[in-house]
Amino acid sequence: MATQIPQRSAKRQRLADEKAAREAALLQAQGQLGPSTETLVIQFQSGQDGSLLGPTINLPAATGQKELQAIINQLRRQLKQAQGPKKRSIDDPDASSDDDEDDDEDLPYAFHVDVQQLAASAGIESEEKQELVKSNARLPINDSLTQDVLNAQAAKKLGLSQEDTLTVVFEPQAVFKVRPVSRCSSTMSGHASPILCSTFSPTGSLLATGAGDKTARLWDLDTETPMHTLVGHSNWVLCAEWEGRERKLATGGMDGEVWIWEALDASFTGRKGWLSRSGKQVDEEWQAEQEQLDNAEGGDAEGKPAKMGVKQRRAARSAAPAGKPLRGHTKWITSLSWEPIHVNPTNPRLASSSKDGTVRVWNPTLRRCEYVLGGHTASVNCVRWGGEGAIYTASSDRTVKVWSADGGKLIRTLNEHAHWVNTIALSTDFVLRTGPFDHTGRATSSSPSYVQPTDEEAKASALKRYKETTGSGSQPETIITGSDDHTLFLWPPQINGSASTPKKPVARLTGHQKTVNHVAFSPDGKKIASASFDNSVKLWDASTGKFIATLRGHVASVYRLAWSSDSRLLVSASKDSTLKLWDPIKTFKIRKDLPGHTDEVYCVDFVADKVASGGRDRNVKIWRH
């Protein structure tokens, strides 16, 4: 029997590779070694629809992301030229020369190789395939094809060589780029109990927080200072949600009440609308109050209202907006969701879910309940108002229900989960939440950011953004749900979809070892992030539900997630008292560890290049670049 030479250890192999690389570099510097002639056969595939772009091409193995990006942009231009201007003018007669100029600009792309696809082409058994993709189902291409793909452990296990045709998947990225947060710029105290929820306003200039001290607070993000304290709830404030035009804020509490807070001046957006009252407003309110008193008392002798004192006037100017309670629920409020602006820009309605097993749809202006959705038999844990005329509810009765927003008729019940359904997310969540405002906080490019758009402008801007997100109907709104059964279900479009059986899920997403606590679509609708009590965050493909990667770093339960507006960054809040900023595109690793809280972090939100967080230590922290 022949003696077998033992394989080198990983360390010996690495040292040998480094030595060989040094010798090659020395020979090349002395002119005794020419450039590398290694090439790979590449086939480009779209990550959006799976279509192939162009023929297979030979590329040097040292090709990196920048070179691949240039090739894709060139192929894209050639394809548009091949289609011809006539076809484009037929498809879109209103297309202008500006669109052609935009086509000439290079767009940013991210590239990766799908490990599952490689395993399938190599004929690997399903058990071995699962082992290969346990922590990472993608090989992102950043530096070079050799370094990121050929030298990867998964590729070596599959026996990938230079002779194989490599399918490189490309995905377009946002044109603008959000700077990664790296430091705590402000620590703001004010709440007397743990902070339970936080949410940015649509323009990103205000932050609303709710806490166990029975109050909600507004914070000015331009100056990073406290603004108003909203007093009215008689128990913990559990959730808060901004109206899409930033004129109203809704809060829900453990007292079973929903409170509506209106901007002090509805003609402005952002902090301008919620700042202190003007002297004119104070005088008008005082006059109206005095006239009411006079009418009640039958008028006074002199007929002149008493004059407001300086102290009283100052207090009236800086007073917080008055709230209006909406009563009807018998147990605490679990979730809130506003009607989208592109559907109703003038007076959007509000849906509130409760532990009493019902969802109520309110008219905030008339302060009345329009109808009650009462089909669930246990607590309704989450409600989402979709952009295509549907309301989605997730309940502890293990079902997800789809309702018509026009009258509240039940459309269908989705009942695949085996335990409580905790969370639900829409692929259009980001654009519905920000309404008519883009990432710069403007509704229209020509208007200043502080001017409130008219109803027509707001509707047109919101509808345009919604159509861009859904591909004008080619990528309808989809939902994903997370449960105590440790799984997630990705469902086909429930409205305007082409699925023959919308009750059958697209995919069952397994991998978490404990309760799935929160799930969120990326703003571009291409990825899904899920947080669990198993201390991990997982990434999934939003169109197929395929597993992408596991983000490990937290040492305790992960409570909340938030994506950056360009979908290139992800932040998570955990019981371990830290926030972690992740790279969900290239490395799938921690980009920045953000310690600073002294106890559990319950809530986090991401806007522009700022992150706001709050938790058990009762402090609001603002993190920025």
From TrEMBL:
<feature type="repeat" description="WD">
    <location>
        <begin position="551"/>
        <end position="583"/>
    </location>
</feature>
<dbReference type="GO" id="GO:0000027">
    <property type="term" value="P:ribosomal large subunit assembly"/>
</dbReference>
<keyword id="KW-0677">Repeat</keyword>
<keyword id="KW-0539">Nucleus</keyword>
<dbReference type="InterPro" id="IPR036322">
    <property type="entry name" value="WD40_repeat_dom_sf"/>
</dbReference>
<feature type="repeat" description="WD">
    <location>
        <begin position="326"/>
        <end position="363"/>
    </location>
</feature>
<feature type="repeat" description="WD">
    <location>
        <begin position="230"/>
        <end position="262"/>
    </location>
</feature>
<feature type="compositionally biased region" description="Acidic residues">
    <location>
        <begin position="284"/>
        <end position="300"/>
    </location>
</feature>
<protein>
    <recommendedName>
        <fullName>NLE domain-containing protein</fullName>
    </recommendedName>
</protein>
<feature type="repeat" description="WD">
    <location>
        <begin position="594"/>
        <end position="625"/>
    </location>
</feature>
<keyword id="KW-0853">WD repeat</keyword>
<dbReference type="InterPro" id="IPR015943">
    <property type="entry name" value="WD40/YVTN_repeat-like_dom_sf"/>
</dbReference>
<feature type="domain" description="NLE">
    <location>
        <begin position="41"/>
        <end position="118"/>
    </location>
</feature>
<dbReference type="InterPro" id="IPR019775">
    <property type="entry name" value="WD40_repeat_CS"/>
</dbReference>
<feature type="region of interest" description="Disordered">
    <location>
        <begin position="282"/>
        <end position="306"/>
    </location>
</feature>
<dbReference type="InterPro" id="IPR020472">
    <property type="entry name" value="WD40_PAC1"/>
</dbReference>
<feature type="repeat" description="WD">
    <location>
        <begin position="188"/>
        <end position="229"/>
    </location>
</feature>
<dbReference type="Pfam" id="PF08154">
    <property type="entry name" value="NLE"/>
</dbReference>
<feature type="repeat" description="WD">
    <location>
        <begin position="373"/>
        <end position="413"/>
    </location>
</feature>
<dbReference type="InterPro" id="IPR001680">
    <property type="entry name" value="WD40_rpt"/>
</dbReference>
<dbReference type="InterPro" id="IPR012972">
    <property type="entry name" value="NLE"/>
</dbReference>
<dbReference type="Pfam" id="PF00400">
    <property type="entry name" value="WD40"/>
</dbReference>
<feature type="repeat" description="WD">
    <location>
        <begin position="509"/>
        <end position="550"/>
    </location>
</feature>
<feature type="compositionally biased region" description="Acidic residues">
    <location>
        <begin position="92"/>
        <end position="106"/>
    </location>
</feature>
<feature type="region of interest" description="Disordered">
    <location>
        <begin position="79"/>
        <end position="106"/>
    </location>
</feature>
<dbReference type="GO" id="GO:0005730">
    <property type="term" value="C:nucleolus"/>
</dbReference>
